[in-house]
Sequence to fold (159 residues):
Amino acid sequence: MATPKNTICLWYDTDAEAAARFYAETFPDSTFGEVFRAPTDFPSGKAGNVLTVTFTVLGIPCLGLNGGPMFKHSEAFSFQIATDDQEETDRYWNAIVGNGGQASECGWCKDKWGISWQITPRVLTEALAVGGEEAKRAFAAMMTMSKIDVAAIEAARRG
Fold:
């Protein structure tokens, strides 16, 4: 398989393979690719340890790097997943938070490896794109939520 021209590299302590397998099992159009082992010892591991793994998340090529504990993830990077309805929103949110992750505000959550996710129903982004009072109402409703409630956003859009 040819290496993509652009790949997102995500730094993990030692769990890149477990994270990549979880993403591939959780999201459609996601795959677990190849595992590359370190040919020699390196600062945070030994020869033969998993060094990198390739995977895709909803068609986005990624590389997981087991680089050790020195760098941590932050909300400065997140995957934003557009969902079509409450069922899809619940499925992804519950998979991430229910697998050792952490809920946050306004549709944000973190997986157990510290990667941030925005589980964002399309009804919310559509409301914000409309602008005006409808966007203000939808935004105000969102600001009170952890996981986004599609019915509440729809009601806010209607006023």
The longest helix spans residues 86-98. The chain has two domains: 8-66, 78-158. Residues 44 and 68 are 5 Å apart (CA to CA).
